[in-house]
Amino acid sequence: MNIFSQIIIAIVALLHTYFLWLEMFAWTTKAPKVFRNFPKDLFPKTKTLAANQGLYNGFLVAGLVWSLLVSDVTWSKNIAIFFLSCVLIAGLYGAYSVSKRIFYVQGIPALLGLATILFL
């Protein structure tokens, strides 16, 4: 896999590490500043739900990091394509169901990663 793809995958993994932290450990402290349109009184009530979402982001991070550590190029690409596709689908669904901003933050980096793997 080319270095540009690896850099984008690392960026996507870092973004999802941030989402994991925000949703699992900072939902009632920092998340209200990030998710300004979400009613403030719901943060404590949805803490467990957000933590579960954060855990899923952790699984995405694990898969993306795994794709960077696999030495076999074909396997590495296939793993990266799968996990970047998962991120892209999550970004598309988030844009549809919550906010278009989710696609820009989550979907576009995944799309760029997929494009560099498939076309470079």
What does this entry look like structurally?
- The chain has 120 residues and is mainly α.
- The protein has one domain.
- It is 82% helix and 0% strand.
- The protein is built from 6 helices and no strands.
- It is elongated, with a radius of gyration of 15 Å.
Index terms:
120 residues; mainly alpha; 6 helices; elongated
Specify the biggest β-sheet.
none
State the total count of DSSP E strands: 0
Global outline:
elongated
- The DSSP helix count reads 6
Number of domains: 1
Poorly predicted runs are none
Helix % is over 70%
End-to-end separation? 9 Å
The radius of gyration is 15 Å
Roughly what fraction of the amino acids lie in strands? Answer: under 5%
* Global mean pLDDT: 97
Query: What is the H-and-E element order?
Result: HHHHHH
Which structural class do the helices and strands define? mainly alpha
Please summarize what this structure is.
With 120 residues, the protein is mainly alpha-helical. Helix content is 82%, strand content 0%. It has helices at 3-25, 31-34, 42-45, 47-69, 73-97, 100-119.
Explain the layout of strands and helices.
Layout: H1 3-25, H2 31-34, H3 42-45, H4 47-69, H5 73-97, H6 100-119
